[in-house]
Amino acid sequence: MQINSNYILVDTPKALELALINLRQSKILSIDTESSGYYTYYPRVCLIQINSNGKNYLVDPLKISDLKGLGPLFEDEKILKIFHSAQDDIRALKRDFSFRFKNVADTMISSRLLSMEQSSLSFVVEFYHKVALSKVEQKSNWEIRPLQKQQLRYAALDTAYLEAIWLKMEEELRKRNLYDEAKSEFEFTASEDYVAKEGEGFSLAKFPDIVNFTPLERRKILELLRYRDEKAKRINKASFRVFGNDKLSQAVKEQPNEEKCIEWFGKKDGGEIYKLLISEYNDPIETSELSKRHGEDLNEDEDKRFQNAKKWRLRIMRIRRMEHSLLPSNKQLITILKANPQTQEELRALNVFSPWKVENYGPSLLAALQGLNYDSMVNRLSPVRSKEAFLAKRRKTQNHSSKEE
User: What whole-number distance in Å separates Cα of residue 1 and Cα of residue 163?
Assistant: First the structure.
């Protein structure tokens, strides 16, 4: 397949009308988006890339107020829509434009099912096409207009290879009897409703070197993060661009006076941050609390069932020789155990994960949650990679972790 890096910029209603004439004739569309999330607290889609029959259309939603013409394309069951990391793009497109999607394929999920060494777009393109995609524009500010030529070329290449890659992946998925599983995951991703995230837009556990702070220092870090997060919301700016983590760490470690805080953070913020630093706190944060996640405040019985669910997940991972990202997450497991479904139909009604997972994992998961034996239910599951490849990947991961420590 000939790869074309040229592009057609669609930034007027008339240009969109012309583009739609061609796009409606397509059987396959490759889609990607560029958003403002690296710069703004509330991200928005700033560019929609659509590749069709070797043509790269770059649709500018900041210049065109009415994009409803794209809706029928995305919902058309006869047109295949290919994404890399469909969940991210589809959520963004649903959030900003209320689009709906049917007949989707995802090369990132496919790369994981096919046990590729990495699942990034750049790795997959290099693996199949021996081409190294430039990452220079990866952190561009996509809100600024006019967009530069190098940004547009970069954006066009993000979809240029997807169709050719998917056709090879589809063949391999079918050959290894993984296609039905993949298709179910794609359909589940496409059908998920967009739900706005609630709560704090940060995680204390992910703050750099948080385990090296004292419990009292961790409490102060948390208060500073809350202050930064609230300001980021008000001015719609990415949190790390309001105050850097390194400066917050320095403030907590050095305990500067008010004058120094004002020098570092400005008059208004410096004064407030100084008050947070000198306040008395009676609730220091112990290391054990860092591993807790939202929703994991379980009672004794729930925690017992949660541990059973995690053991079940580890068993599935070993039997299928697959990476953890393809298995139910802690959040999903907790949602299920709190709902306490007794049958597969009740589990299906929760809409927590794909129909394939309900059908193939449901019986053994329900048994695990009830403390019952489920050996016969999982031993029939087919592995996604050879035992040798699985062990080699695990050794590589363990060695990498050891080096980081």
Answer: 9
One-letter amino acid of 63: K
Q: Could you give the CA distance from residue 334 to residue 325 in angstroms, rounded to a whole number?
A: 16
**Interatomic CA distance for residues 163 and 29, integer angstroms:** 8
For residue 10, what are the β-bridge partners? 59
CATH 3.30.420.10 is held by the domain 8-191 = yes
d(CA 251, CA 112): 41
User: Residues 49-99: pLDDT tens digits?
Assistant: 999 999 999 999 999 999 999 999 999 999 999 999 999 999 999 999 999
55 forms beta bridges with 52
> Looking at domain 300-404, which CATH architecture does it have?
Orthogonal Bundle (1.10)
Q: How far apart are the first and last CA of the chain?
A: 45
CATH code for the part of the protein at 204-288:
1.10.150
The pLDDT confidence band at residue 268, using thresholds 50, 70 and 90, is very high
Element holding 302 (H helix, E strand):
helix 300-320
Q: List alpha helices for 176-238, DSSP H.
A: 179-191, 215-235
What are the CA-CA distances from residue 229 to residues 157, 201, 202 (Å)? 34, 7, 8
Kindly tell me the burial class for residue 50, based on how many C-beta atoms sit within 10 Å of its own C-beta (0-12, 13-18, 19 or more). buried
> Is 143 buried (19+), middle (13-18) or exposed (0-12) by CB count in 10 A?
middle
CA distance 181 to 163: 20
Q: Where do the structural domains in the chain lie, given as residue ranges?
A: 8-191, 204-288, 300-404
Pairwise CA distance, residues 232 & 38, whole Å: 12
d(CA 338, CA 183): 28
- What's this model's pTM, rounded to 2 decimal places? 0.91
Strands 80-83 and 28-35: parallel
Cα torsion through 184, 188, 189, 194, rounded to 10 = 180
For residue 146, how many other CB atoms are within 10 A of its CB? 11
Dist. CA 337–CA 308, nearest whole Å: 10
b (16+ CB within 10 A) / e for 16-26: beebbeebeeb
Which pair of tokens denotes residue 290? 């860092």
Q: Do the domains 300-404 and 204-288 match in fold?
A: yes
Q: Whole-angstrom Cα distance, residue 309 to residue 375?
A: 14
